[in-house]
Amino acid sequence: MNVKIALIFSLLLFAGLIVGFTDSVATSEYTAVVYNQSDSPLPNRNFDKMMDVLTHQRCMNCHPNDNIPKQGDESHPHNFGVAGGENDHGFQAIKCTTCHQPENNAYSGVPGAPHWGLAPASMAWEGLSRAEIAESMLNMKTNGGKDHKALVKHMTEDELVLWAWQPGVDASGKLREVPPVSEAEFKTAVKQWFANGAVIPSE
Amino acid sequence: MTLALTVNSTSHTIEIADENTPLLWVIRDMLELKGTKFGCGKAACGACTVHVDGEAVRSCSYAVKFAEGKQITTIEGLGDEKNPHPVQQAWIEEVVPQCGYCQPGFMMATAALLEKVSSPTDDDIDKNIINVCRCATYYRMRKAIHRAAALMSSLPLPESQNT
Asked: Where is the 2Fe-2S ferredoxin-type domain (chain B) (predicted)?
């Protein structure tokens, strides 16, 4: 009896080894569906391009929801407890302009652009969805009273906004990452999105 | 290029090849004012702090071209041994420095703060004085800042707690 049981176990073990060696890695024919922006309707494509920029760190780092500017591609809180203060440009004697000048500084790696500072709290985008950012941006009660024409001008001409494509080097001399959409494409997308009625796609 | 700037109430005209040269190096190497220190070179530590038109500025990250026509004040212009600025006086009385390297930057930052906030709270100090001292003289500096505020006003001097 024991010999029969041992023989059965041996056969099962042998069969298992054969199966294991011949089919040890499960394979799948699954492939991820790649989202292609060019497949989306034109208004949405413009919206997507615009939002790809607005949600990039170069923009989001200075649209915080806690009055604390963020730094770097990983958006860590600004060193040394720096905050926007009451006027979004620092405190009484330590202002944004203590370190940030009207242009990037290649020697120190400190970024700079005209009127460097935080966006006002009413324009805090950190933590918002793309649609919520767009709603906030279009709301004249939160956007500083800007109508569509003023928004287009701000987004396509303001030197601090356009700094995103000329962000200079960091303190290590490494070029900062730029948004995934070119400046020219962004400007076109913004103008077309507003021209088409500034429709916010449903999420 | 030629630039005109005023440092410690003295007018200077300088010839400089690179207009983006940090103001710090003009102050130290061209004007031979060695009180302003190079620390990190990244506008982080504050050892290079000077005043530009009364505002605290990190001179290691301030292109000299932006200083044209501006009033620059360095630690040498704040006061001297015979006539120390109240901040310098307070620093002496509270025996603040250890190695001393970063202290000019701290004193310049403090002088700028007291021009804006005559009697700063500890919270004001925490928010506005964000320089770095590797000797960690922060405790004595806080006392000196309060003392300087008192010296600059009619407030009674805080009792020194130095031991």
From this structure: 1-78
Q: CA separation (Å) from B8 to A129, B70, B162?
A: 52, 11, 33
CA distance A4 to A92: 91
Residues of B engaging A, defined by a Cβ cutoff of 8 Å: 20, 22, 41-44, 55-58, 60-63, 66, 109, 112-113, 115-117, 124, 126-130, 132
A99 interface with B at CB cutoff 8 Å: yes
Was domain B86-151 assigned CATH 2.10.109.10? no
Contact B117 A80 (CB under 8 A): no
Domain B2-78: CATH superfamily, name plus number: Beta-grasp domain (3.10.20.30)
List where CATH 1.10.150.120 sits in chain B: 86-151
Supply the pLDDT for residue A184: 98
Asked if ipTM goes beyond 0.95, one says: no
Do the Cβ atoms of A93 and B41 come within 8 Å? no
Where in chain B is CATH 3.10.20.30? 2-78
Largest CA distance in chain B: 53
Q: Concatenate the DSSP letters of all residues of B73-125 into one string.
A: E-HHHH--SSS--HHHHHHHHTT--SS-TTHHHHHHHHHHHHHH-SS--HHHH
How do residues B108-121 score in pLDDT, each as one tens digit? 999 999 999 999 99
Can you name the residues that pair with A71 across neighbouring β-strands? A76
Cβ within 8 Å of residue A62, ≥6 positions away:
A69, A70, A117, A118, A119
Alpha-carbon distance A37 to A46, whole Å? 9
Hunting for tokens 């620092």 — which residue is that? Answer: A90
Task: Report pLDDT digits (tens) over B13-39.
Answer: 999 999 999 999 999 999 999 999 999
Written as six digits, the tokens of A126 are 């950190």
